[in-house]
Amino acid sequence: MAVGQALLLNEEAVVIQLTPCLKRGVTLMFGFCMKGVLFDLDGVIADTAVFHFAAWRKLVRDHFQAELPDELEEKTKGVSREDSLKVILDYLQLTVSDEEFAALAAEKNEAYVDTLEDLKPAHILPGIADLISDFKQAGLKLGLASASKNGPIILDKLGLADAFDAIADPAKVAQGKPAPDIFLAAAAALNLQPADCVGLEDSVAGVTAINAAGMVSIGIGGAELAHASERFESTSDLSYPAIEAAWQANR
Ligand code: B16
Ligand code: MG
What is the pTM of this model? Predict the structure, then answer.
């Protein structure tokens, strides 16, 4: 039987969800199954991470006639717009007024949002649409834990606006990634304990945030994510059974 497929036990329609968890003989009755999955957005659901850094590069070229090195991209991944700008100004050894800081952040966002204009469901990263559908079929709760204030717009363009049970608002948490706040807020919005959740992340700061939240972390990327509970090279390597197994092994 396929993952999450319903099994008709008798004529009175007693139905059991055959999840990978049950397949390994662990019973749902004792709660030994993961209950929620918290997704990062940029770099996990869609390849928008590259658009963020391209917009920062354009801003820095236009205003400071400087080039940002590739290494700076990881330092801005998963990090809020304002914290990313601080990282960039530190690198350039520049200080700006509060007004200029706000104007620079707004201009970067305009350039970024422009690049999202043609975003469509075809831009969902490989394997993610099937993964979401397998989780939903198995009755798991899904939350979004993105640092991006553009999250709802992006989900809408990708045709995923209704896929999530809760979207944590990054504007309402005290501290951004690598602090655990956004993952804790997403779990709370789903009425789940952190320990019952896994978090999926492509950034160093995001994996640190999931670990600090007391959740099992799934890193999607290279060796820089060695601190994740389990690491996968790309989204196409993810599957419900593999993620459930990671939760079981690391909870
Ligand atoms: P915005 P994630 C993060 O999204 C990006 O990785 C990061 O580069 C960006 O600065 C941050 O969102 C804020 O985004 O400017 O759109 O509010 O990876 O947490 O989904
Ligand atoms: Mg990300």
Answer: 0.89
